[in-house]
Amino acid sequence: MTLQESQLRLEKLIEINHLLMGTVDPKAVLKLILESAKQLFSAEACSIALIDKTHHQLNFAFSSGGADVGEFKMALGQGIIGSVASTGKGIVCNDVSTDPRFFKEVDQETGFNTQSLLCAPLKYGAHYIGAIEVLNTNHPAGFTEDDLKFLNTFGGPAGAAIERALIFSSTENAKNALEEVVQNHFRFIIGQSKTMTQVIDIARRVAPMKTTVLLLGESGTGKEVMARAIHQWSPRSANPFIAVNCVALTSELMESELFGHEKGAFTGAFAQKKGKFELGQGGTIFLDEIGDLSASLQTRLLRVLQEREFQRVGGSKNIQTDVRILAATNRDLKLALKKGDFRKDLYYRLNVVSMTLPPLRERQEDISELAAYFVKKHCLEVKRAIMTIHPKALAFLENYTWPGNVRELQNAIERAVVLAPEPIITENDLPLEICEHCQTPPNNISETGKEEVPQFMAEAVDHFKRTYIRKTLEKTGGNQSETAKTLGMRSSNLSRIMKQLGLR
Ligand SMILES: Nc1ncnc2c1ncn2[C@@H]1O[C@H](COP(=O)(O)OP(=O)(O)OP(=O)(O)O)[C@@H](O)[C@H]1O
Ligand SMILES: [Mg+2]
User: Which residues form the Sigma-54 factor interaction domain (predicted)?
Assistant: First the structure.
């Protein structure tokens, strides 16, 4: 090559580099590199293979005569280009039929007839990210060692431009994913199974009215999520949504929490305080775990529902209230009615419209969408690049019975997002009991067929507790109070332990 020719090439390379610096769309960058390399080496075609470690493959882009870019995938290390991508050592070959590494299938795929080639690694810093290949030069002397040196040099800025574009697009993807999560948040409810669609349909129809709604369903099925959605879909959405947990406080404190109190109404009432029914004017009050409301509060609540007015504790003035009441429980209210633990008249007032959130085991179709949603949500929370779920891990998730319902699924995914070493969640990243429960051989079965005990004592104890509680819950049909009784503990205690163990 004459000095003038190499000078021209160098000038061309600088010009291409400038163009690459101003391009961030990965497809546009690939196209620019493919076309430029064809020109630089007077070649008939050019291809680029990029290493995709997650899927153990090479992503291949190819351009021949026309400007169209074809794309396909190859196994890692396959063909001359695969070998250069993995070793980082460039190759000149003026007769491919003499090189056993030449992979004919690529020509079959592209319809191209390769005779000679020049291939060099694409670099980003000290790493090889793939390789670039120029095919069939028009030069009578064929490809030369000088050409290889030049392609090696080109591999630096070309690799950097590709990597920069990929990083840019993954940031864009993360931004889009965040927007999607935000949008989903407004959609509120994930789930397109038949049963969920029916429940969502009722919720949407009842949302614009002032009707009281009773939300039923096992723990973790999404009763509170649904209550928030009903509020959001109602004309009250600009006003407060106030959630009150009816078991969190003693009956007296709860009374003052709901209705407020006057100064001096009881010891410690140093100042007047407004209750939730006053603070929530124009909005929605969500009474969670209504089945646990004390008898005296049941009576007071019934009056509010009937008369739409109340008095603060220790007060005598009637206060009008315009709140919409939504209530939820995972207890069997009909049984509580029979036992006399829950007032019938209150039950009928609350139960104007009732809907039952189906347990997750009865809507297997929703699991993948929910899991993908939680992956995105938690990746964004812990600032990890958006991860994927391996199909085998997804199969485990879909086959598990989920006694803790959506909450348990969410906890399992949150844990996996934090613990998974790779950007793909495998069954090894899931809690033990999920894999144990399925037909597919779980990964904790060693070569000898013996079950491996969790490594740490605390982990083993937690594992036992989780299984024990889950089995008892299954026996009582998900009834938490019954389960607590069977296990000889207080309901609140069981509730706390279940939360700790990620079962609720
Ligand atoms: N359909 C859904 N879409 C998105 N997230 C959901 C859905 N259902 C439940 N979740 C999530 O699962 C968790 C449990 O939901 P929620 O608190 O509404 O359950 P619950 O029925 O009120 O449970 P509990 O009876 O134990 O109070 C929450 O973190 C919620 O965000
Ligand atoms: Mg709840």
Answer: 189-418
